[in-house]
Amino acid sequence: MDKSAPAAEPVSAQEARHLFAGWKRIPALVLAVSGGPDSMALLWLAARWRKSLKNGPDLLAVTVDHGLRAAAVGEARDVKRLASSLGIAHRTLTWRGVKPRTGVPSAAREARYELLARAARSVSAVGIVTAHTQDDQAETILMRLSRGSGITGLAGMSMQTERHGVGLLRPFLEIPKARLVATLNRAKVGYADDPTNHDPAYARSRLRALMPMLASEGADARTFSRLAMRLSRADAALERMTDGAERYLRLRGGAASGFDISLFSTMAEEIQVRLLRRVLAGGVTAHPPELGQIETLLRTLAQARVEGRRFKQSLAGMTVSVEKERLMVCPAPPRRGVQSAGRG
Hints:
alpha/beta
């Protein structure tokens, strides 16, 4: 630890009011509070903000126990104790059922958001507030970079998005974790330290351990956050260009019969990728195709046109083909085994 580094400044009540200002007319909000420093700071700051309002939203703190650690039960009790002292309602929800042998972090995350969304709907809350920080944003970008994500992925997490039909709000994305810890230390509020955050068995933990070394080279959390902001801006611009391209293709006869392949081929490859992703995302599968799969399909399509070959491929439950100079995307026919099973 660099003793010469300045101590992190706690998040002030005034700053918290600014962070939460856009939500003061929302009827109710769910606070996702695990018991760690980030979410406990969220609970503390949100409660103080709510108290400063004459007619603010109802707050419900929700802790999800994934059933993976015995200590989680005590951590949920600590959250409930703090919430009660702040006048905030609290619920503990448990992820029940058989846990997967692999991909536990991803499955746990999906289960957590599903339970949080269920709690939000039960109290007519339109938003779930999470305590993702600037450090979390940096780790997310680093993870996606290591997996070869495109511009959309490298834009990182958004301040506001939607999951399971409920708004997902992240007010701390530009706040360093150290400032939230400093906030709790000043308020003398305790918090838990989840050991899985340091477990090298998980990719995020391994990448988190690299952050100090990257920061020494200038690639700190603030730099990654700035990168995310710039790529988010570029992603938004490309999406608007894709909107225009889609309207253009529709006006030139693109409808149920497909797109004019000659016009489609004149567009920049990134726009082609995004157009195809949109069409395929509306298909019959719950799992949209990966970016690399769409890129491979486009390369194969381009090569087929150069060689004058017929093109027809299946992807994500859809069939992509070129028929009479039109790019067609339609549901793939059911497999024989599935069809036979349906007749039995």
